Amino acid sequence: MSELATLARPYASAVFKRAKETDATAKWSENLAFLSTVVASKEMAAVFGNPKAGKGKIGDLIFDICAGRIDEEGGNFLKLLLQNNRLGLLSDIAKQFEELKAEDEGYADVEVVTAYAFTKEAHNKFAAALATKFDKKIHMKVTVDKSLIGGVLVRMGDQVIDGSVKSQLQQLQKALQ
């Protein structure tokens, strides 16, 4: 996994640099999201696994699917990935691009897993607390997981804050053994 991220990093950085130069970060976000969805689909996985499908046929198929959905620069980027056998990196490139974009725009995407759904007021207070802690605007994606028993699990990039009851019980169990 980290090897893929390492391989994807220069592509994501180059695309982000180009997007900033042309003031087209939103367009590149759309291009990368669409391309990564196409490449990650189970239908395309079957094509990639077919030994009779050469690089040219795969490229033609992807370009047919993407016709009208990606701009010329997106198409050129797709050609580059095809030439370098790096189509499999698209989801990592898209993810890293979004992280660079978020950093540049001063916000953070935060995943919050909670045992019980937030009320609107609790959601706003928690988002404000995270904004203060991380000194960024926060975009929260909240999911409910009853197995946490109580508390929250927060993920922002590679940072994790685990304040769940489940985690505390597991730590207590280890301490008692």
Could you give a short description of this structure?
This protein has helices at 2-21, 25-40, 42-48, 55-66, 72-83, 90-105, 120-134, 165-176; strands at residues 107-114, 137-144, 152-156, 159-162. By secondary structure, it is an alpha+beta fold.
Helices and strands in order, then pairings?
Layout: H1 2-21, H2 25-40, H3 42-48, H4 55-66, H5 72-83, H6 90-105, E1 107-114, H7 120-134, E2 137-144, E3 152-156, E4 159-162, H8 165-176
Parallel strand pairs: 1-2
Antiparallel strand pairs: 1-3, 3-4
Helix pairs in contact: 1-2, 1-6, 2-6
Structure, described:
With 177 residues, the protein is of the alpha+beta class. The chain has two domains: 2-102, N-terminal domain of the delta subunit of the F1F0-ATP synthase (Peroxidase, domain 1), CATH 1.10.520; 106-176, no CATH class. It is built from eight helices and four strands; from the N terminus they run ααααααβαβββα. The chain has helices spanning 2-21, 25-40, 42-48, 55-66, 72-83, 90-105, 120-134, 165-176, and strands at 107-114, 137-144, 152-156, 159-162. It has a four-stranded mixed β-sheet with strand order 2-1-3-4. Strand 1, helix 7 (120-134) and strand 2 form a beta-alpha-beta unit.
Descriptive labels:
177 residues; alpha+beta; Peroxidase, domain 1; 4-stranded mixed sheet; 8 helices; 4 strands; 14% strand
| Main β sheet profile | 4 strands, mixed
Q: Whole-number radius of gyration?
A: 20 Å
Low-confidence segments: none
Q: Secondary-structure element order, as H and E?
A: HHHHHHEHEEEH
